[in-house]
Amino acid sequence: METWRKRRTLFLALLAPGTLWLVVFFTLPLVLIALYSVSEQGDAGETILTLTFENYGRAFDWVTLGILWKSFWIASAVTAACLVMGFPLALGIAFAPRPWKTPLLALVALPFWTNLLIRTYAWIAVLRTKGHLNNALEWTHAKGQAAFAALGWPDALGPFVPLELLYNDWAVIIALVHIHLPFMVLPLYAVLEKLDRAHLEASLDLGAGHGRTFRSVIVPLSMPGLATGTVLVFILALGNFVAADLLGGSDSMMIGNLIAQQFGASSDWPYGSALSLLLLYATFLFLWLRALGHRRRGEWAPA
Amino acid sequence: MSDVIAVEGVSKRFGADAAVEQASFEVTQGEFFALLGPSGCGKTTLLRMLAGFETPDAGRIIIGGKDMTGVPPNRRPVNMVFQSYALFPHMTVAENVAYGLRAGGMNAKDATRHATEALALVRLEGMEKRRPDMLSGGQKQRVALARALVKRPKVLLLDEPLSALDAKLRETMRLELVRLQESVGISFVFVTHDQDEALSMAGRIAVMEKGRIRQIANPRGLYETPNCRFVADFIGKANFFGGTVTHQGSGIAVVNCPDLGLLTGRMERSVSGAVTLMVRPERIRLSAAPLTDDGTNLQGRVTHIAYYGDESRIVIDLGTGRTVTASIANDGESGARWRVDSEVFLSWRPDDALILTE
Predict the structure, then answer these.
(1) CA-to-CA distance for A30 and A270, rounded, in angstroms?
(2) I need a labelling partner for B170 at 20 to 30 A (CA). Which of A144, A295, B161, B233 fits?
(3) pLDDT in tens, B55-70
(4) All domains in chain B, ordered by first residue
């Protein structure tokens, strides 16, 4: 770094494109949104900068708070599910024989190759009343019915009733878990891969079983990856609006949908901007909590 | 039943490579036993099989009278000091030491008390609250020792425990390990590639080469009566002369070396045919005139003198393209007698050379 600083022109030349990009496409829009959030809409739909905090006030009505609450619990459920499924997966890949690791990692990252919308739409085909899952259930039901009929119990299982799997919170959660699982697995894998196997052997050697070794050694030592994965999944799930839009029921609106609505159908940009900034602050709050946890655990934590 | 470990014909392969072949030995109660050999000789694999991290392909391991086949590492009455120490970085020193006790079901209060005692044993009082990354290499080593010893294992396994320390500290820790072993009375099985370490610490040493145990003996036995050329070469320095046996009797054999004539040495058992005669550098006597006793007498010219402080090693050309290394103590008398290019007579008594058949 020192030598870079000495070569000032080169340093600035390399720094410029990135900085410019961020200023033009990130910082300036953010400032614009901040300005919108303290503006009002005139009668002709024009935006007037009035430095009002009314838009923020509007966010604190019961309907919006309800939507915010729902967003938080859906994001939490998604994060928890990703954690429960992602940890064994990451552990499995990290401990797989060397030639297997890269293909397995590629499989985890494979969904990224498909468009987000298509991945979300695919769940409609799986979950709808005449979808793949219900078709499979119906087929099983028919086979069961036939088997019972052969044993002399015609119609023992009753008529097949397809499950209502689509257009509810669960459909949203399932799709969000599917979309965000790699964001949990990859950071976890990164720390587990670097985990010194001697620590695990030491734990076993000292008489701890596999359960205790997992609890007392593997989990604490993978905290950096665990925290990164959790924060990533939570923030991404919180801001997602495609899944709720396509798969959610009439009451499945998430904060992302509400914001999208303000910039779209409702064309109430000031309110949408205020909501966006509130979501941003909430996100910062989580990042701050994570950093706090990091500092408390001391210097040993890598990254 | 004084054997705490009995290894019976243990073999282990990794793919096509034999890591350990037909290893057998016993370790008795309270013994300091070393597994010594160059890197890749299988000594660490053998140790890891004792700990349970590797499974033997053949043979069995008996610890404390119980067959360990199928017993996982956490159920074995042994504990290990890892080469990297493997201290848990997220726990304090006291938590590290108490970990094994807690895993064994001891309550927190007793575990803490035992941990404090174990830390006192390795002279780390007052370090309980520190994290491993705040310790020096020597301190980490002591924590690793305390963490393993606090479990009161039947055998303590040590994998190159001193290799990560600097030279001076290593010397100190050797003495300390021996002191510790004597005070706790637990058998130590110690893996090292450093012959000085093994010779200065162990009661008995097993020398390994390419997965096989070549010789098991006490340090003096290994140095003075190696059973093969590999052991003689690996432990200390040695001069070797190949030849055929011409006479033998009363523990002494005469070997005809093609370019040097007749050489004498002692034999451990009756020998015949092609053999190797081995002489340690410090057993070669140098003189300005030939000595007239019944030993071997040779003549040569000094080509190189390496000064080591306590001794000097003198390389002598025997005129046949063969060189011999002799070492002389720098005691103020013999040290300065020889110069490069000096003509010198060298000799050894029959008892100072050993006939090797392998």
Answers:
(1) 13
(2) B233
(3) 999 999 999 999 999 9
(4) 3-231 (3.40.50.300), 237-356 (2.40.50.100)
